[in-house]
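Lecture 7 notes: from sequence to structure.

We start with a single chain of 332 residues. Read the sequence below before looking at the structure.
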Amino acid sequence: MASTSFSPLFSSFSSTLRSTTLTKGLDSATPWSRLEIDSPNTTRNLKKPAPPLSTPSPRKGWFLTPPALLTHTSLPTWYHDNPFLPSSYRPIHASTSHCLRSLLYLHNESLNIYTHLLPALLTLYHVPFLSSQLLPGSANTSIITFFLFSTTITLLLSSAFHTMSCHSQHVSARFLKADYLGIVLLNSTCVVTGVWEMYRSSPQQAWKWAYTSLMAVVGTATVGMVLLERCQGREWRGVRIAAFIGCGMVGVAPVVQVFWEGREAATGVRWYLLEGALLLGGAAVYALRVPERFAPGRFDIYGHSHQVFHCMVVAACVAHLTGLVKGLSAVP
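Now the structure, written as C-alpha cells:
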C-alpha cells in the first residue's frame, strides 16, 4: 500500500527530470540545430548537411598573373604573321579583359604596343602647348593642331590593334582594318600639312589646292583597296605595303617643285626629306623582316622589325613636326 501511494509522486518527479535535461541540451545546442529540431519536419531537416560558412572566392591576382606564352607552331593559321618570331605569343582568349591584361606582362607584342601608345599619350597631353605656344597665331595653330591630333589617332589605332590582336579572328581583323585607316590618315595628314606650310605664302595658291585634292583622291582609293576583304590575306602583304608607300609618294611632287622654285630655305622641306627617308627605311625593315630573318628566336621580344618600324614612324612624325614649326616660323 505504501508503494502504491508513492507511485504517482515518483512518476511526476521522473517526468520533471527528463523535461529539465532536454531543455538544457537544447540550450547548449547551436541555434540552427534548435530550429531544425523544433521544426515540424525534424527528420528531413536533420538529414541535410550544414550550410557552408562562406562561398569560395575567385582566385586573387588573376589579372596580374601572366599566362603561359605560346610558340608559333601552336597558333591557329589566322594568327600566323612572322615565322621568324617562333615564341612569346599570347594565348587567344576571346576576352577583352585578357587582351588588356596583356599590357601588364612581357610578350612579343609588348613593345609594338608601347612604342606607339606612350608617344600618343604624350602628344595628346602636350597638344595645347605644342599648338599654341610654339607658333602663336590662328592659321599656324590650326595646322599644328590638325597634325598632332591625326598623329595621335594613328598611334592609338596602332596600339589598339596590337593589344586586341589576340582576342579572336573576327576582332583582330576589325582592329587591323582600323590600323590601316590610321596609316592612310597619317600619310594624308603629313602631305596636306606639308603642302599648306610650303605654299602658305606662294603666289601660286592653285598648287596647294591641287595637291590637297590629289591627296584626297589617292588616300580614298588606298583606303578602299586595303579594306577589301580579298586584300586581307598574308599573300597581299606586299601589295598593301606598296599601296601605303604610293599614298605617301604624293608628297614627292610638291617637294620637287619647292626645290625647283628655289624656295627651300623658307620652308621645312629638308625635314620632310628626312621624314620620307625614315618612313621608307622603316617600311623596308618591316617588309624584309630584318633583323629576325637572320637570327630567328633572338628578337622575339626585343628588337624585331615591327618594333623598329614603329620607332622610325615616331621619329618621322617628330621630323615632320619640326619641319612645320621651322617653315611656319620662317620669314617668307
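The CA atoms of residues 225 and 315 lie 27 Å apart. Keep this in mind for problem set 3.
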